[in-house]
Write a structure and sequence with these properties.
Layout (H helix, E strand, L loop, with lengths): L2 H15 L2 H19 L9 H24 L3 H15 L8 H15 L7 H11 L6 H12 L1
Helix pairs in contact: 1-2, 2-3, 2-4, 3-4, 5-6, 5-7, 6-7
């Protein structure tokens, strides 16, 4: 079952249950998927990798917004962003811990023969491919920097 079909079914269930927080998150996912499908260059349904990228983008947006609201002492808006983030994260693959990411990146560093921070681009490319959907870019970047420094 495609993500879009699953989201549509979950929207109906959330409407029946009158779960407004879940409904907001699901509608955000549906809107992002529709936008991605209508972008220039897309002619058919999104593949799983594209769907994961859309979801990761939404989670990142929610985290950044929540952080801004927290610094501005807007707890009401902060709570809304966190609720939506949790709903969206439920549709992402299980995220790896920082230790698991570090172990995988150590093997990538060994495979690529990277020895200094100059090799970061090579390691980041391989790491982003291998860890797609399982870790966010910020975590990957931090681990690569710490290992190559």
């Amino acid at each position: 079952m495609s993500l879009e079909t699953q989201i549509n079914q979950d929207i109906k269930a959330a409407m029946i249950a009158k779960d407004t927080a879940k409904l907001r998150g699901l509608r955000a996912i549906k809107a992002a998927i529709l936008l991605a499908k209508t972008e220039k260059g897309h002619t058919e349904d999104l593949n799983q990798d594209a769907e994961i990228k859309v979801l990761q983008k939404l989670v990142k947006q929610r985290r950044e917004s929540a952080e801004i609201y927290r610094t501005q002492n807007r707890e009401d808006l902060y709570e809304i962003e966190i609720e939506e983030e949790k709903v969206i994260e439920a549709y992402l693959p299980k995220q790896l811990s920082k230790e698991e990411v570090e172990a995988i990146i150590k093997t990538i560093v060994a495979e690529t023969g990277a020895s200094s921070i100059k090799d970061m681009g090579k390691v980041m490319g391989a790491a982003n491919q291998k860890l797609a959907g399982q870790a966010d870019g910020k975590t990957i970047s931090e681990v690569v920097k710490s290992l190559l420094a």
